[in-house]
Design brief:
The complex is a heterodimer of chains A (483) and B (491). Chain A is an alpha+beta fold and 483 residues long. Helix content of chain A is 43%, strand content 16%. Chain A has 17 helices and twelve strands. Chain A has a six-stranded mixed sheet with strand order 1-2-6-3-5-4, sandwiched between helices. In chain A, strands 9-10-8-11-7-12 form a six-stranded mixed sheet, sandwiched between helices. Chain B is an alpha+beta fold and 491 residues long. Chain B is 50% helix and 16% strand. Chain B is globular. Classes of the chains: A alpha+beta (483), B alpha+beta (491). Chains A and B meet through α1, α3, α5, α11 and β10 of A and α6, α7, α8, α12 and α16 of B.
Chain lengths: 483, 491
């Protein structure tokens, strides 16, 4: 930790000198520059912030960044098992497990008492389950850390999964199910995931039957098998000293005996056999369009080229082609975007989307696909490439402005087995991406005939029918979705 | 008696040493330029980045019935550059911009005429299209975004609210001068390019925000119903007919009139020495003429004389909002409403959550908030999502019963302690990020007239008692002051 302090101090010093130099320079030249090219910038001195790592006696891994500016502490607990480890038919298990763990009280403290304490402390505590991990987040004032951690420990080690709280969570999930067709975006997202991950847990959405089938015993059993010290990762930031924290954690978790972590058997993914456009009729003045394909996993060396491609395509805000062509030049949409989600064990989705008035829905979708076609067939311009790389490299520092995000990121990189030099070499890997790399990745993931497209609204087909988009078309009505 | 005293003692011990106010007051360096621009700087050197917020104290409340939507529209157009940025050659571009304005305005005028010649309209449309195509080569697209991105800035954005407009970005600290150059140019030298295309973007934004999701419809209907006179009734974005008829002349006028130092607060939070920040802002913004202060809104919402009740149809399950008119900051009652907001609706142990969501399970969600702005008397809103088979009417009855309880009985000491703790701790959390702090500073400087509202907040909140809560509930939660909106599928 000493070394870190020195580095920060040095960094601050360099910056102050640089600013002083800038001001001195400004003093000599009273004319205020009119154009950005006339500006010169002092170098930015920046080191990736260090995170202290240690392991408790029973194998719990701890990542810490001390930060005493405000009297607050944040804690993230990651348990290395998620919904993919639950039984295949229990879609919706993630939500019911996480909610009931959070709200069901513990073996020694009833739910009502626990909630009363958390609210009086103005603590924030949440729990969520993803495909690969379950995460709990706690935020407390410094002076309440002991009590906050004690509550967190109770919920981790002996959650009560109170039956009434399970029923409450189930009732809420059933109501969400009734409302899942209210919002065009939620319909589009759901249908796209189902199309990309057919007959796979990553594509499933809960049904009345799957929710009804989830029992308290299954929650208890999942907890018993997966919530063991060797499967636990802790990230802490804020106003706490490492020695104090370790003492506290040993006290709360030290007697938790280690146990074997069960292997998760991942169900195989059979990618969709062909592209399809699904159009859902809904009485709204605007059509929501979303399209996608399967993309990359975290070990794919193409992920850097994919980031650059995504920036140029639709991830770079106003600097992206989608924004320029669909919004800025033609006024067809307010929001238009693209995204490459990097999957952990299965390929993540590559997606693009927009919303446009029903009259221009076919035109907008054709335009998005035409831009993808250009990226496949022609190399991007040197200026576009440079802007994308500069932006990704120069904004890298903003991944480190929130001390808690820094610790959580470090923890997740290790949990998901990223290369140890991932962060250190990120910028040079981005800077090395060429136009040919970008085109190659576009060719791999922008395949017009394989795209899954969802439209929700009442697209006007007077000028051109949906079939003109050269994909098989399936038309659905609201009733089809309710079944 | 003993028990009660013991409880109070316990609560007192639990009250944190909430150091919200003190460190903030010590850290903010304030500087006023001769032209009236106010600069607030907080130095933080954890990472070499700076959050830069510029807030202009003008929002949609300052529009007239002729210019509804202009504050927000202008915000979009201010991303299009200046006479030197965003153009390949302004001198050559200028005549085309003038021609586009002339043809576009003529087209707008004709469209409103009942017996306009369709052939004439079509000809003008073609002419406008042709001019726009000729103009495009002069445009260096989205130059602000490009320059900021290239230099590693993130979160470049803007938002328009009822009361104010904010332009924000976070930069690597060594690039702060780029911000000063770009933003001072934007304030005094903006060129409103691509006006007619951007108007179409705004229509799409309106459809997306208010017309394709039931919540947007609920909120818009609530405001348009609860307010009869005050401009808080209008959507910030405007109605479609407002957007379609906004003119370049009106937009330019709004810009020239109000985007000026005298209405501006800047906050810079991050790795920048305060004296360097002051020198930089003086150098780039110091020579801009002060401008004209935004006049206060003269319209006063008359007291409501009876309950208002509206149903809006949307292809969705029912949701509802119940709202009451209330005073705004800095009145003492507004602080009391902050406590009521907590006691009723924030957290799992709050009254409405307990009753509606947990105990009776009438609803899956309840949300309580103040809206739609804070410069003028506003609304206290309760929204809820009924749970089948319960109806919006059942949920409403339970909400009204809880409001009645607040009028009949004093809240407990424990509830007051929880509410205070939560408000003060959440304020502390809002200070964590540079951008969060920058936002608080410019927002409260503009809304309350002094950012120190944040400093005195703890004291104001701590003075309030259960009797205050009861008195405020009795005054404002009256049936004649109520508006109820339900959005549901047509039966």
């Amino acid at each position: 930790m000493k070394r870190l302090v020195k580095r920060v101090a040095l960094c601050k010093y360099v910056w102050l000198v640089a600013v002083a130099a800038l001001l001195a320079l400004a003093g000599c030249t009273p004319a205020q520059p009119k154009r950005p090219e006339q500006l010169t910038y002092p170098p930015l001195e920046f080191w990736i912030p260090e995170v202290t790592q240690s392991t408790l006696s029973n194998g719990v891994r701890l990542y810490l960044r001390e930060d005493s500016e405000l009297p607050l502490v944040q804690v993230t607990v990651m348990v290395g098992s998620g919904s993919l480890a639950a039984a295949r038919e229990l879609t919706g298990f993630d939500d019911l497990f996480a909610t009931t763990l959070r709200t069901g009280g513990s073996g020694s403290v009833p739910a009502a008492v626990l909630e009363e304490r958390l609210d009086l402390l103005a603590a924030n505590l949440s729990c969520g389950m993803g495909p690969y991990a379950t995460q709990l987040d706690l935020s407390v004032r410094r002076d309440d850390l002991r009590e906050g951690l004690a509550i967190l420990g109770e919920l981790l080690r002996q959650p009560a999964f109170a039956a009434d709280k399970l029923e409450l969570a189930r009732n809420q999930a059933q109501e969400a199910l009734r409302r899942r067709n209210d919002d065009p975006e939620s319909i589009a997202d759901r249908l796209l995931m189902a199309a990309l991950y057919p007959d796979h847990p990553l594509g499933d959405s809960p049904t009345e039957a799957s929710l009804a089938a989830i029992s308290r015993d299954q929650l208890v059993d999942f907890h018993r098998r997966h919530f063991v010290p060797g499967n636990l990762w802790l990230a802490v930031s804020g106003d706490v000293r490492q020695t104090d924290l370790l003492t506290l954690l040993e006290e709360l978790f030290g007697d938790w005996p280690p146990a074997d972590v069960p292997d998760t058997i991942l169900p195989p993914l059979v990618p969709p056999s062909a592209g399809l456009l699904q159009a859902v009729a809904k009485e709204v003045p605007q059509t929501t369009i979303i399209l996608g394909d399967l993309g990359l996993t975290k070990d794919d060396p193409d992920q850097y080229a994919a980031r650059v491609l995504n920036f140029i395509f639709g991830g770079g805000g106003f600097n992206s082609r989608l924004m320029r062509e669909v919004r800025s030049d033609r006024g067809l949409a307010y929001s238009v975007w693209s995204q490459f989600q990097v999957g952990r064990r299965f390929p993540g989705p590559v997606m693009a989307g927009t919303e446009t008035k029903n009259a221009s829905a076919v035109e907008a979708l054709a335009l998005v696909r035409a831009i993808m076609h250009e990226l496949r067939t022609e190399p991007v311009s040197p200026e576009e490439l440079q802007l994308a790389r500069d932006s990704l490299v120069n904004s890298f520092i903003f991944g480190f402005t929130d001390p808690h995000a820094v610790v959580v990121q470090r923890m997740q990189l290790e949990f998901y087995d990223y290369l140890p030099d991932y962060l250190d070499r990120y910028r040079e890997r981005i800077a090395a991406v060429t136009a040919a790399d970008v085109q190659r990745v576009a060719q791999a993931y922008f395949r017009p005939e394989r795209q899954q497209v969802i439209m929700v609204g009442l697209p006007d087909e007077t000028a051109a029918p949906l079939e003109s988009l050269e994909l098989p078309v399936r038309r659905l009505r609201g009733d089809d979705l309710r079944r | 008696m003993f028990c009660k005293r013991l409880l109070l003692l316990l609560i007192a011990l639990l009250l944190p040493q909430l150091a919200t106010a003190v460190p903030l007051a010590d850290k903010v360096v304030e500087h006023r330029l001769a032209n009236g621009l106010r600069l607030l700087v907080v130095e933080r050197h954890e990472t070499p980045t700076v959050a830069a917020y510029i807030t202009i104290g003008v929002g949609s409340v300052h529009e007239t019935s002729e210019t509804r939507g202009v504050a927000h529209f202008l915000e979009h157009l201010l991303f299009k550059g200046t006479t030197t940025l965003g153009t390949t050659d302004y001198t050559a571009e200028r005549p085309l911009l003038d021609a586009i304005e002339q043809v576009g305005s003529e087209l707008d005028r004709l469209r409103l005429e009942p017996d306009a010649d369709p052939a004439r309209i079509a000809a003008l449309q073609a002419q406008l299209q042709e001019l726009q195509d000729r103009h495009r080569p002069f445009v260096v697209k989205d130059v602000y975004s490009q320059l900021y991105s290239q230099n590693g800035a993130v979160g470049f954005n803007a938002f328009t609210s009822k009361d104010l407009t904010t332009y924000l970005v976070s930069l690597p600290a060594n690039k702060l001068e780029l911000w000063a150059l770009l933003e001072s140019a934007r304030m005094q030298d903006a060129v409103l390019r691509e006006f007619f295309t951007e108007r179409e973007v705004i229509h799409e934004e309106r459809r997306r925000t208010y017309e394709t999701n039931p919540r947007g419809l609920l909120y818009e209907t609530l405001l348009a119903t609860a307010f009869a006179v005050h401009p808080y009734r209008n959507p910030i974005i405007g109605w479609h007919s407002d957007i379609a008829n906004l003119s370049l002349a009106e937009t330019r006028d709004f810009l020239r009139r109000y985007y000026a130092p005298v209405n501006t607060t800047i906050a810079l939070v991050g790795a920048v020495p305060a004296d360097a920040a002051i020198a930089l802002v003086e150098r780039y913004f110091g020579s801009i003429p002060a401008g004209e202060p935004v006049p206060p809104v003269a319209a006063v919402e008359p007291s409501q004389r009876g309950e208002k009740r509206v149903t809006a149809n949307f292809d969705a399950e029912a949701q509802l909002a119940v709202a009451y008119h209330k005073p705004t900051l800095p009145s003492r009652e507004d602080y009391v409403f902050d406590l009521i907001d907590q006691i009723l609706g924030q957290g799992r142990t709050s009254r409405l959550y307990q009753r509606l969501v947990e105990t009776e399970q009438l609803a899956t969600d309840v949300a309580v908030y103040g809206a739609p702005g804070s410069r003028y008397p506003n609304l206290f809103v309760i929204e809820a999502v009924p749970r089948h088979p319960h109806t919006a009417a059942e949920v409403e009855a339970a909400i009204l019963d809880e409001l009645g309880r607040l009028q009949r009985e004093e809240v407990s000491d424990m509830e007051l302690a929880k509410a205070r703790n939560r408000l003060l701790t959440d304020n502390l959390r809002a200070l964590r990020s540079n951008s969060g702090l920058a936002r608080l500073l410019t927002t409260y400087q503009t809304l309350a007239g002094d950012w120190r509202y944040l400093v005195s907040y703890e004291e104001r909140i701590s003075e309030l008692t259960a009797a205050d809560v009861q008195a405020v509930a009795r005054t404002w939660f009256a049936p004649q002051n109520r508006t109820v909106v339900v959005v549901a599928r047509e039966k």
